[in-house]
Design a protein that fits this description.
The structure is a single chain. The protein is mainly alpha-helical. The protein contains seven helices and four strands. The strands form two sheets. The chain has a two-stranded antiparallel ribbon with strand order 1-2. Strand 1 and strand 2 (about 35) form a beta hairpin. The mean pLDDT is about 85.
């Protein structure tokens, strides 16, 4: 439940970054509709949306939503997260959220730590931040 609430909060922040891009580069179609299109717009969305998660989790171990919900991403072995870990963790976000929502849900409820596919790949887990030591081993 807490992870879902964190996701909703983070969705706002991830899409807000793209909205900045949209406001700068939008143009009006003949019908008056404001649009940003093309491969650059798609890339800008992916970079801004997933970049938010990757940057926040790499530098802070948590996104704004996770901080509000008192959650933190850690390595399952307790070591410090690397940039590679965080990127691996989010590689399957698009697949999980668009193509295989049901499979992602089954994976999360079928293990006692609520790990997503990306957590298994990166050997990470989301835990209660109050139970994480202030300084993780390097």
């Amino acid at each position: 439940m807490k992870r879902g609430a964190a996701y909703v909060i983070d969705f706002f922040f991830g899409t807000a970054l793209f909205d900045v891009y949209f406001q700068i580069f939008k143009h009006k179609k003949a019908a008056g509709e404001e649009v940003v299109h093309g491969p650059v717009a798609i890339l800008a969305f992916i970079v801004s949306y997933y970049g938010y998660y990757i940057v926040m989790e790499y530098f802070r171990g948590q996104t704004i939503g996770k901080k509000v919900m008192r959650l933190k991403v850690i390595k399952s072995d307790g070591s410090r997260l690397t940039l590679t870990d965080v990127i691996k963790r989010h590689l399957f976000d698009l697949v999980e959220s668009v193509c295989c929502v049901f499979l992602a849900f089954i994976v999360m409820i079928s293990n006692n730590k609520g790990k997503r596919i990306g957590d298994f790949i990166a050997n990470t887990e989301v835990v209660d931040a109050r139970n994480v030591p202030a300084v993780l081993p390097t």
